[in-house]
Design brief:
Elements (H helix, E strand, L loop, with lengths): L2 H23 L6 H26 L8 H24 L3 H25 L3
Helix pairs in contact: 1-2, 1-4, 2-3, 3-4
Length: about 120
């Protein structure tokens, strides 16, 4: 995996979490600007998925196994869009909290992806 891309996704996810967490503390639902931020984070996760699949197809191996690596890549891609959908159905401050939580979850998934790719 590209370390810089993993760091970029993690930083973007944590920035989204902080931004939506701030909206939560101000008792605000997710707004259009939040959805643009979610789209940017999702696009970065999609780029990471493509890069991971390309590296696997070139013969590189994840240290802990290809199946778990691809599962984490797919989970990383789905984390923020799932929260975006849930925040649309919950148009209160709790929608913002859901997106903030998904940003933290994505950052943790990124750390785990890095661990799966490079053990030891």
């Amino acid at each position: 995996m590209l370390d810089a891309l993993t760091v970029a996704v993690s930083v973007a996810a944590l920035a989204l979490a902080a931004w939506c967490g701030f909206a939560f503390t101000r008792d605000q639902p997710t707004k259009d600007w939040h959805f643009i931020g979610m789209a940017v984070v999702t696009l970065l996760a999609l780029v990471q998925l493509v890069v991971g699949i390309v590296q696997l197809s070139r013969g590189e191996k994840a240290e802990e196994g290809t199946t778990i690596f691809v599962a984490y890549l797919l989970g990383s891609l789905c984390a923020v869009p799932a929260a975006a959908f849930m925040s649309l159905t919950e148009r209160s401050r709790w929608g913002s909290a859901t997106v903030a939580a998904s940003g933290v979850v994505l950052a943790v998934l990124e750390v785990r992806l890095f661990d799966i790719w490079t053990v030891g």
